[in-house]
Each structure stands twice: as C-alpha cells, then as structure tokens.
Amino acid sequence: MLLNLKKVFTIFLVLFLPLIFHHAFAQQRYNNFKPGKIWEDNKGKHINAHGGGVTEIDGVYYWYGEHKVAGNIGNTAQVGVHCYSSKDLYNWKDEGIALKVSDDLSSDIAKGCILERPKVVFNKRTKKFVMWFHLELLGKGYEAARAGVAIADRASGPFLFARSYRPNPNKLPVYPNAESQKQAVNCSSPANKSDGFFCRDMPGGQMARDMTVYVDDDGKAYHIFSSEENFTLHLAELSDDYLSHTGKFIRIYIGQQTEAPALFKKDGKYYMVGSGCTGWAPNPARWFVADSIWGPWKYMGNPCIGEGSALTFGGQSTHIFKAPGTKNQFIFMADQWTPKNPIDGKYLWLPIDFNEGKMEISWNDRWDLSVWKK
Ligand code: GAL
C-alpha cells in the first residue's frame, strides 16, 4: 500500500511538477524583447493582438489588438479584440476578449466583419475606456471604410459597441497655416484624385481605414486615419467624451497614400510614423514632424536605418508609446503580417532613437529597456 502511494506520488510529480512550475514562473519568463519571434503570454500561447496598441493605466500596460485565427478566414474578425496586461512590457497576461464580435448578423460588428487596428484611450473626465477601430461591414470587402467606437468601465472590458460611421460628413477641412491654405480643396474643380474622392464622400462622411487615436497633454483626443481611398491622412478632433468627431480636421500629405499611422509627442514636438500602401506586404516607413498637432506636418523620409530598413524590417507600424522608466523615450510597435495564416503574425518592437533631431529606428535581435541608460 505504502509502495503504491509512493508510486502515485512519483507519477504525480513527474507529470504535474513541470506544469506547476511553468504556471508559477510563466509570468516572469521574459526579460527582453525579441522582435519577430514567438512571444508567449502567461498561458504559453503566442500573443494574439495584431494591429494593436498599448495603453498605460496606473503603471499597468494593456495591449489591445486584433485576435486572428488560422487560415484565410483569419483576415476577418471571427472573435474580436484581444487584451493582455503587463507591468514590465515583457511578460503579458491574457485578459481575454475585450470586445467581442456579434453573433447577430445585423450588427455592424457581426462575426466575419473586418475589424482592424483597435486603439484604446482612457477619458479622465468620464472615467471610461474608449476603443476606436477601423470597421468594414460583413461581406462588403473594404468598401464601408468606417470608424467604429466601443466603451468600457474597465481596461480589460467588456467593451460595449456604440456605433460606426464615416466621420465628418459635409465638413471641409480647416486650414490653420499658409501651407494648408495653399492646398485648400475646391470641390467645383478638384485639383487631384484625392481631392476628388474627398468631394465625392462629403455627403456621407469621409472614408476611415488604417487609424490611431492620440490624446494630447491637455486631454484632447484626435483620430488619425487613412481617408480618400487611402490617398490622404485625416487628423480629426474628437469630442470631449472621445465618442464622436467634432467636425474639425486637417488633411496630411495629400495624395501620398500613408497608412498605419502612429503618433507621439516629444519635447513639445509632434511626431508621426506611418507606412506606404501595399496591403499586407511591407514597404518603407515614413515619418513626419510638426510643431502643432494642426500642422504643418513635414514629411521627413524613412526613419528606419541599416539592414532591412527599406522594408521596415518586414513590418508595418501600428503604435508608438513612451517607455517606462524613461523621461522621453519611445517604443515603436509594428506587425509582421502573415496573411495566409494570420494567427502566425509576429510583433516587432524596437526602440526609437533621435540623432541630431532625426528619428532613427534600427533592427535589434534582442533588447531591453536599459538601452536608453547606456
Ligand atoms: C494594410 C493595412 C492593414 C489591412 C491590410 C488589408 O495596408 O495596413 O491594416 O487593412 O492592408 O490588406
């Protein structure tokens, strides 16, 4: 009998001890970033949060992104927006699906729609978490080009879908400086293709595809999105509750097809990184700088340097945020898409450097937050 108990105990140890250890230490598994490699969450699963962004709340970081599934169908939203949390940015805890797609086929976010690039901001006045995303209606390819918004009381959700629409119908852009004035849109005689799309879409609202949301130091929020058939970026002011557009917006880099915008502010200047427009295939990144959020936004070329820089190291920008423990250093987040099996997509997180005022992003196989201390 005793022998049997011993045997059972040994079998238990052999079978379950590795599991118990795995679980106990899973949270502390990583102490660096390895761009382009499998990145496991606390359950040992590759993180599933593509086209995402990171939001910090009281020292906890929340990573939201598109939950992808295997196969071609994975390019559509079968599940929703996945959320993870972390205190150190290396080790991520699965917080589940923050925004679920709906089984109701008449819902704007019906299962099988396209729901991309979710970004979450916290509204200090309303104490609500607000998620914006690019939405394409079920079965309609990429023709809807809408912005969608959802709200939650807690960072990890559940987010409640509010509505989706094309922003700023019947509104003209503002022209806050001489440069923008020179490019004023004239719908009785559009100067170029992009202006033509802008004028065409005025009655129903402007197209809104690849996007981000940026909250400035004064609490004002802005939605930045690829519009006009992806030819031109719009930077549009959101209402004080962050739930709608105010109608005030500018156009950026007209006709130049910028996608995947990510914004940040450093030493009083505004910076944006974006990509060109080649679908899931990588292309050169591009950066912009402005003294005011309302521009003029100056095009500065490719911030990536060194080997792989011509194609953004195989990735496409999605978000930029301030690195913890630094005064003013930023992390560049990009996606390495794998459209044939989207669930396999990898993440490229790289440190942003500034060299005599010029933004620089270079490849790094393995790095950690101490890079800025060196
Ligand atoms: C990319 C865009 C992605 C997705 C994809 C679809 O250019 O950045 O978010 O929309 O096209 O082909």
Question: What would you say about this model in short?
Answer:
The protein is 10% helix and 38% strand.
Topology:
Layout lengths: L1 H25 L23 E8 L2 E7 L13 E7 L6 E8 L13 E10 L4 E9 L9 E7 L7 E6 L12 H5 L10 H9 L9 E5 L5 E7 L4 E7 L6 E8 L6 E8 L2 E7 L10 E5 L7 E2 L4 E2 L10 E7 L7 E7 L9 E10 L2 E5 L12
Parallel strand pairs: 17-21
Antiparallel strand pairs: 1-2, 2-3, 3-4, 5-6, 6-7, 7-8, 9-10, 10-11, 11-12, 13-14, 14-15, 15-16, 18-19, 19-20, 20-21
Beta-D-galactopyranose binds next to strand 5 and strand 13.
Regions with little confidence, pLDDT below 50 for 5+ residues:
none
Given the C-alpha coordinates, what overall shape results? globular
Provide the CATH topology. Answer: Tachylectin-2, Chain A
- Major beta sheet, specifics? 5 strands, mixed
Task: Describe this structure as you would to a colleague.
The structure is a single chain. 41% of the residues are buried. It contains 3 helices and 21 strands. 10% of the residues lie in helices and 38% in strands. The protein is mainly β and 374 residues long. The chain has a single domain (37-164, 185-367), classed as Tachylectin-2, Chain A (5 Propeller). β13 (259-266) and β14 (269-275) form a beta hairpin. The longest helix has 25 residues, at 2-26. The mean pLDDT is 95.
